[in-house]
Design a protein that fits this description.
It comes from Leucobacter manosquensis. With 270 residues, the protein is mostly helical. It contains twelve helices and no strands. The two termini are 22 Å apart.
Length: 270
């Protein structure tokens, strides 16, 4: 693939000089810092809203550090997913409409390198931002819940070990990679960014629904989110229930990137 290194440098500069460099990191840092606080004080918030008597009747368990870790993965799978999909959904079609793609491809740069460079930089950027956020979440959790304890009460870090939080975040990054490559394929296919984003978001909800089925969750990328949640809370599933979703997810990403290259090669540029 011709001009891969120059394209990678160009994509990296695009991240640094556009809204991407601050939107995703700010969102993730906010979620990482606020999640443990919300988990820790959920009961107090409910007590203020419902009244002490009603809260006692509910018999809510004491919050633990595992709850904060679970909230981090939940937050990643909500607002952060939409930011990731939007970044990828407008990556190719925006440059095609503006004529930037035509200029880049006469350097010369192959269309395969053009697509792959988008995928590599987007995945790398999302991964770095997610792992930094995971470190912040773990650190804030330690401050809020305390670093000593067994995780069975409100004062222990327990299941929220650094390895658990990073491992769960890694599984989410694989899921994000699937969504990025789906959105890139859609971006290479459709001129409208909204259409590409809709496909990316629809894929996420489809995987989330499929993850409810045990057999699909065990052997397909649909199991990435349940596995991430289990790892974060210190109750990891069998190794096969982790590695099968990872392997099939990464395999699907390769197929999607190849499909995006094929589609983009057939696309007329302005």
């Amino acid at each position: 693939m011709n001009a891969m290194l120059p394209l990678l440098r160009l994509r990296a500069r695009e991240v640094v000089r556009t809204w991407r460099i601050w939107v995703l990191p700010v969102v993730l840092l906010f979620l990482a810092a606020s999640g443990p606080l919300i988990a820790r004080f959920t009961n107090e918030i409910l007590a203020g809203a419902l009244g002490g008597g009603e809260l006692t009747a509910l018999a809510l368990p004491e919050p633990t550090a595992a709850d904060a870790a679970a909230r981090w993965i939940t937050d990643l799978s909500q607002l952060a997913v939409f930011v990731v999909v939007i970044m990828a959904a407008g990556a190719i079609n925006t440059e095609v409409r503006s004529g930037v793609a035509s200029l880049l491809l006469v350097k010369p740069a192959s269309r395969a390198a053009y697509v792959v460079s988008h995928a590599v930089v987007l995945v790398g950027f999302v991964a770095v931002a997610a792992f930094v956020g995971a470190l912040v979440s773990w650190g804030v959790t330690g401050l809020v819940f305390g670093s000593a304890g067994d995780g069975t009460g409100g004062d222990g870090a327990g299941a929220s070990t650094l390895g658990a939080v990073l491992g769960a975040t890694g599984l989410w990054v694989v899921l994000a990679t699937v969504l990025i490559t789906v959105s890139l394929l859609a971006s290479a296919t459709f001129d409208a960014m909204a259409a590409a984003a809709g496909i990316g978001v629809g894929t996420f909800f489809l995987l989330a629904l499929a993850g409810v089925a045990p057999r699909l969750a065990e052997f397909t990328p649909a199991g990435l989110l349940p596995a991430a949640m289990a790892v974060a809370t210190g109750t990891p599933p069998d190794a096969s229930a982790i590695w099968w979703p990872v392997a099939t997810g990464l395999g699907l990403c390769v197929v999607l990137v190849v499909a995006a290259v094929v589609v983009f090669r057939r696309r007329e540029l302005r």
